[in-house]
Amino acid sequence: MKENKRQKIYRTIMLIVVVATVTFIVTSIINYQDSIKYVISSKFNTNVNQKIDTALSAITEIIEDKYIGEIDEDKLIDGALKGMVASVGDIYTEYYTKDELDQFTTSTLGNFVGIGVYMQANFITGNITILSTIPNSPAEEAGLREGDLIIKANDKEYKAEEITELSNDIKGEEGTKVKLTIKRADETLDIEVERRQIHINYVVGEMLEDNIGCISIETFDEDCEKDFINEYEKLKNEGAKALIIDLRNNGGGLVDEAINIAELMCNKNDVLLISTDKDGNKKTTISKKAPVIEMPIVVIVNEASASATEILAGALKDNGKAEIVGEKTFGKGVIQELIRLSNGGALKVTSLEYFTPKENKINEIGIEPDYKVEGEEEQMKKAIEVIKEKMK
After folding, report:
1. Where are the domains of the chain?
2. Which of 102, 199, 315, 332 is the most exposed place for a label (fewest CB within 10 A)?
3. Domain spanning 112-199 has what CATH number?
4. What pLDDT sits at residue 106?
């Protein structure tokens, strides 16, 4: 009986790893079949596979024979996979359990039950910081602020590398509450926040002075391009003659949405993005359409502008379609693929590094603004000043 149970756990772990490898190959062909060819073969030599095989078999046998408590097979498998993926040493490469994947997907679609707060992990300081709260959300109503450090949730302490676990614990059943321990300057506060259904509007347009339109994008979720077009059309109908795109505190999102928005402003055949895989194979993404938006454009960024945001800012800057105001961006110049696995979970793996159209490196460097300005009010004032000059 014990032998059958050990074999079941072990075989399941190895099966999922194998399925992950095959799925990676299939997904890559679907996404990149125009430029990359794959041969189905082991990425590791036989000796490495044998070591993994032997170690997992030995550990499952010892746990089954010696451990005095109850064993949750699913948790054992998830733990083995999380440990294997974490050992890669890349903070962006993660294994998601089925529940974590469901929550990740729901968040990407822009609807979920939670408190309505954006967080960022600082892996240097170990802190988890609130970037902003969603308007009219429970977080905003409870008084949470940009810059607050989240120390605990329901009295459990969290560090930067545990931001996914923290996010999962903050979310929960609608109508329940979560207690957050917040550090704000020299104060430590306990704030209770109710969980509610959150619908996020990530793209918001408004008219500024002198026929200047402004569109803020908080993240690149599904349908972001469509929402951007809708906001642009509203502003244009209201008389907008120039456009400010506010990408401050936008940590990224879906790469395709950022590229599609860049294509609205760039010329046909302009290079939008250059990416390379681990073997040095280069892919160049080119605009296939004539520009829809042809008016002066300024983009505002800050040090929390990252990933897909840097793709959009880099494409507009390098193609001469916009000037950049603000601070140097975060510098996340790598792309992850999300690969669904047979157990309902998924592997998010860093598979590409990307560069601006002029082949400038972004990862760990960031994009330098044309006009370096600190402070939110000062940045907007400078953006308006620059765009007025472009309108003359």
Report:
1. 2-87, 112-199, 203-391
2. 199
3. 2.30.42.10
4. 61
**By the 8 A CB rule, do 51 and 377 touch?**
no
Could you please report the per-residue DSSP string of 234-272? Answer: HHHHTT--EEEEE-TT---B-HHHHHHHHHTTSPTT-EE
CA distance 220 to 261: 10
CB burial readout 135-171, b (16+ within 10 A) else e = eebbbbebebeeebbbbbbeeeebebebbeebbbebb
The pairing of beta strand 323-326 with beta strand 297-301: parallel
Residue tagged 């062909």 (tokens): 29
Query: What tokens appear for 247 in the block?
Result: 């990408």
pLDDT, tens digit (0-9, with 9 covering 90-100), for 124-172: 888 899 988 888 889 999 999 999 999 999 999 999 888 888 888 888 8
**Top CATH class, 203-391:** alpha beta
User: How far apart (Å, rounded) are the C-alpha atoms in residues 16 and 270?
Assistant: 41
- What is the rounded distance in angstroms from the CA atom of residue 231 to the CA atom of residue 233? 5
Helix (H, G, I), strand (E, B) or coil at 43: coil
* Nearest C-alpha neighbor of 107 from the set 157, 27, 170: 170
Per-chain mean pLDDT for the chain: 85
**Euclidean distance between CA atoms 80 and 56, whole angstroms:** 9
Distance CA 336, CA 87 (A): 17
DSSP single-letter state for residue 344: S
